[in-house]
Design goal:
Layout (H helix, E strand, L loop, with lengths): L1 H5 L9 H14 L1 H26 L5 H8 L4 H35 L4 H9 L1 H31 L4 E5 L8 H4 L5 E3 L5 E2 L2 E2 L11 E5 L4
Antiparallel strand pairs: 1-2, 1-5, 3-4
């Protein structure tokens, strides 16, 4: 995407339609790759989640362990796949919007033209940061959604919020550590609603409370 943008004069409004058209076409061309990439990630996280459940449920009855593994995760997986493909395809679309906005800003304020030009040339770097954020967030969110699906399938009402326990944990998330959270009532933290592991860059995780046999 950086190559697309930097192939044209930065800040030139006459090239905006061409850049935007190229990036929109690129977003659509990404669909097959995005589906394969998201599918591989979902399968990998699902296998890890299954192993984690197998290790954590040794004390449960065999019937309950089997029921957990038989949870209908298909709908959750399909929903996650659709959302992740959309997120991947949004990267070039957001790049197009960013270049458009910066170009207009440079025209309106000639004093900032050089700064705006440098920001436009950083488009590839900005896209990479966005892609990295999506990757980190979606792996954790997928694990959280699969854990929730399996736990609710066997009658779990909620979970204990656990953090990674290091200094980088956000204050709002640190305050949640050790608290019981109902699946039906995700908390709102820093203006966003979700369960442990479902926030941007969140490394927290849910420790499901499983009902006794």
């Amino acid at each position: 995407m950086g190559a697309f943008v930097n192939g044209f004069p930065a800040g030139d409004p006459t090239v905006l339609p061409t850049i935007e058209q190229l990036l929109r076409r690129y977003a659509e061309a990404l669909t097959p790759w995005a589906e394969v990439t998201a599918g591989k990630m979902l399968s990998s996280v699902n296998r890890s989640d299954e192993r984690a459940w197998a290790e954590q449920t040794q004390e449960l009855s065999r019937s309950l362990r089997l029921e957990i593994m038989r949870a209908p995760t298909g709908n959750a997986m399909r929903g996650l796949m659709t959302e992740q493909v959309t997120l991947i395809k949004s990267i070039p679309l957001e790049a197009a919007e960013r270049v458009h906005k910066l170009t207009l800003e440079g025209l309106e304020n000639s004093a900032r033209a050089k700064t705006v030009s440098k920001e436009i040339q950083r488009s590839g770097e900005v896209c990479k940061s966005r892609a990295d954020l999506i990757a980190r967030t979606e792996v954790a969110r997928t694990a959280s959604v699969l854990t929730q699906t399996r736990a609710q399938h066997v009658g779990s009402d909620g979970y204990i919020w656990r953090t990674s326990g290091d200094p980088d944990v956000r204050h709002s998330h640190r305050e949640m550590n050790g608290k019981f959270v109902r699946w039906a009532s995700p908390p709102t933290l820093d203006g966003m609603k979700g369960h442990a592991g479902q926030f941007p860059n969140c490394r927290c995780y849910a420790e499901p409370v499983i009902p006794e046999d």
